[in-house]
């Protein structure tokens, strides 16, 4: 037997904070060595943090990364253990995203990334060059200070593997796994048994299964040990990296780390038998045949053994049942952990949320409540870093620290219901109940006096006073009156966020939380600079349907039972007067349902549909209940309001990324914000398609009628059934 103990990790790195990142790297290596591991894998670009973006273009960033690596190599961190460390490196005039494989205070090889992530949230080609030379290694001259300190002038640079005395190890970096022809395929044929995948993969609802299937598939047919490491946490942007470091052998997951955690360092260890890999490959005839005619991959030789012989004191890791979270749990834990990282790293003293009693703001409140529960739980489990952060943020004294989530929420979370004459008692009551269950410091204030003052000022300036539509006003007046309320709420929220700590003799400031969902952003059903404008928004890319499911789950699993009543209430902005014959409803205002919006969003972004393609797709999807003319009207209505309101995405509050059809303008959904909202060419094409479809339908009906007449004549009118109609009314 060749027994090999490996360690991989989830690290909560912070872009450009080299002290924080270096500390976490060293801590993870120490824990790996304490566990007896001889391989330690860290995440992609762990030295700098993955989300540095244009900081990667600065020479300082690369230089600091080398300084950190020198610090690691001059100590005993790599003594007796192979460490794969991610950092940017400049070779010649090109900048590469690299894994540096080190052991015994030496750099064994530098592996540049060959296929870069350059879609969705990723722009690696903006900062890095893909390595294209696959035939041989090149000698890379180490920076002068590094070579002097390490007494090593150069290191092999390129694509290949390390041949140890008892096994072969190679790196496959993040995106490379997901390419049509991944490197691990030919590396396996060259005898590589251990694959190291350093990754920077963000959370997205329902995405983890796709990732794990890729790891399992990489070794299911080829055999091998696949080790995966990832970032975990918010490293400074909209993304939450969701960890789940794992080890897979011959298609079985034998070790899996957490997907959502407040820990800065989590090390996952597995004990494996490499003879199982050799046995598996030897039993597959097609693998043997392809290996005999393989393309040779470059390699270097390392005069070290990594494995131990048969030993009954060593227990092998067994296959595990993979742990998945439900989408509702993902909504609770992902944004909750992201909020904690943002709070502890921003210098803020807490959060302030305009709480309306509706589904969106109540979801945000529940996520903050979940965050508080996670913090208290981690402190109870002995996490000293979480404890120190909680004491500082909650401003505890005399050795006190959070032991109850509601008490902690009361210290760091303010909610405010900003009612007007258009608000109902039902939403006011729901907001209060939600706040009480979570434990927030809740305020209830009427803002009619401020609205009245503004309207009086407007009337003094113009001589006119606008009226609501239900009171005889125009659409322009009606919209203007709604916007006044929404924007006053934003101004009041930010004023309270900055001054309430002072009022209560606390230091710092509060972060204002937004609560617009992805569907409202897509449709533009929000006022520019209203109370959805905030510092950060944990639900900005989560759909209304998912949020309602989350509320039902949170009512039971987080202990906030009042959320069930919130979920059951029809969505309303409550910006227009309530009358006996009229009550404002979101879906009526929008002219479309939230369910329809989710469909439009997926077709527009995920399936890359313009108006004409969307019309064709929806004719198939909705054709059994809607005519082509009705489908056309819906598509035109959506694209009209999407394009009219696209400009709002340029000022959208930075939001947690959770959904693949997010309309977020800053990083993810790169489209213009000035449109011809009439879409004349596209809508004309749709009209022509509708006309053709209607003509075809008339022709089919006439054909069916002729067939029916002929059949009646042949059958003598004796109960003959029409053929080929598809119309349920066509039978006799």
From TrEMBL:
Keywords: ATP-binding, Ligase, NAD, Nucleotide-binding. It comes from the Eukaryota. One of its GO terms (biological process) is NAD+ biosynthetic process. GO terms for cellular component: cytoplasm. Its EC number is 6.3.5.1. GO terms for molecular function: ATP binding; glutaminase activity; NAD+ synthase (glutamine-hydrolyzing) activity. In the C-terminal section; belongs to the NAD synthetase family. This is Glutamine-dependent NAD(+) synthetase. It comes from Trapa incisa.
